[in-house]
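2024-03-11 09:14:02 INFO queue: dequeued item SAM-dependent methyltransferase, len=262
2024-03-11 09:14:02 INFO validating residues
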Amino acid sequence: MDVGRRAVSRAEAATANRGWWDGEADDYQAEHGEFLRDDGFIWCPEGLDEADAHLLGEVAGRNVLEVGCGAGQCGRWLAAQGASVAGFDLSHRQLQHSRRIDLSTGGALPVVQADAEVLPFADGSFDLACSAFGALPFVADAGAVLSEVHRVLRPAGRFVFSVSHPIRWAFPDDPGPGGLTADRSYFDRTPYVEFSDDGVPSYVEHHRTMSDWVGLIVSSGLTLTGLVEPEWPEGHEQVWGGWSPLRGRLFPGTAIFQCRRP
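2024-03-11 09:14:37 INFO prediction written
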């Protein structure tokens, strides 16, 4: 596998990430499923739990869309709080894991396979939308996703989403001491790309600076109402990729944006 930085099209990014998540879903759920819980709403590797954070506010009786739902863990938690939930994901294999959990728990979370840049939902269908590291870091056009979320939200509807903190892109993705020294420009927005042996993109992740995210939110018609940078909690010693206690106690790993449709 080769790794590099280069521009990719929307189609290249979608094709690469659909294939990557289909191939990695089993290992991902095996590694992280206990941490996420079958019916838990964990915003980030720091372990911020919506049951404690209440970033979405009151969810009972609300129609909620989960953007990039994976195996539906967040959606199940929302449904248990009295919300009416729909979820979607680009990866069919991730949705099969959602069905697996449904069968083991007796639930039935409504999910559909879809691309976040073109949502298959009617205008004004939802009171709330949420995304815990779903879709937005992986799409070529995050502005299209935000505009689509704006479209499917009702007036005064809210969207809360978490992504890798932009500052992390200036550092190697290393949970140890090697990940403490910046080695690239924070302002280099060239996507991170992994390539198959024949040179075709097989995984793509996109970097946006903090000001990029704010600009995309505003240009979509949403209003930014809050920003959370979760601190690494005492007693949390679990490493998740480049997230670790060592790094987490020095600089943020996650940014959570709270938005509202006027």
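2024-03-11 09:14:37 INFO annotate: The first helix runs from residue 10 to 36.
2024-03-11 09:14:38 INFO item closed
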